[in-house]
Design a protein that fits this description.
By secondary structure, this protein is of the alpha/beta class. The chain has 15 helices and 11 strands. The chain is globular, with a radius of gyration of 21 Å.
Amino acid sequence: MTLLEARDLRVEFVSRGRRARAVDGVNLVVGQGEIVALVGESGCGKTTLARTLLGLERPASGSVLYGGVPLAYSSRALRAHRREVQLVLQDPTGSLNPRHTVYEAVAEGPRIHRLPAEGERVASALSRAGLRPPERFFNRYPHELSGGQRQRVVIAGALALDPRVLVADEPVASLDASVRGEILALLLRLRDELGLSALVVTHDLGLAWNIADRVAVMYLGRIVESGPVERILTAPSHPYTQALLSVLPESPSPVVLGGEPPDPTRIPPGCRFHPRCQILASGAAAETGVDGLCVSRPLPVLSSSAAAQVACHHAEARPASTRREAEAGAGVEVERR
């Protein structure tokens, strides 16, 4: 069952006469009890997409759907939507008011939505977030907590509204390595126990491997590759995905991308990744006869299908036998690690 969906979503910003296409045609679904990782480097549009799914940005075209119903932008509709779809920010220190106790921080949402049994909600949310006994934390302030405990308070603040979807923007980026695993395990436990769905926004493919059911890789406002996590991260087809994976510690040879970082005000013709593409630069695209297409023919917008799909002229042109051999080799390599 699809809970949250982006359908041909486009978001634009205009500044000093320049139009930035931050999200430039995205189809994405998050199903019931599913964790989807949205991956990409800074500036690719993933945070703007997440904010739009929350109703914090209004799309230029396309639509956001929740439970199959398009999101309306009246105050009442947005209020109801944000109770069902809650945001978890990456910096717990910045998202918690230092003058508010843990109780006040978690109770803020139920008070805004005028929900009954405030004390019980706060205690239950803290307990589900792993802060037990919850009463022990009621009167503490953020500076009295560890980084992991502060992130659990932020998660508890979302859980206090009984949402069905969490949108977590870099949920462990500011945490020590020793605490990251605890927070990821908590998100998985909430999915298993409460049936929560989650969209996890991250630049870290290692995090996606540990937590996600599906991965969507975003570059310059579009999803360029998506599919089941095992398929995408063991046998990536898009050169951008390959470059992101190559910086993981287990990778034998990192790919250094040339060219300029993505600029949403200057989207190149053809494949939007071609100015930095290592496949095009190496001559491999010319060998398959698609180098001209890479620089001239735009690629179609990927659908919201859960099956593996890629927007790449070179990947589409490679013989099926070569693709199978590459996928089999990648799978063996991951198992060996």
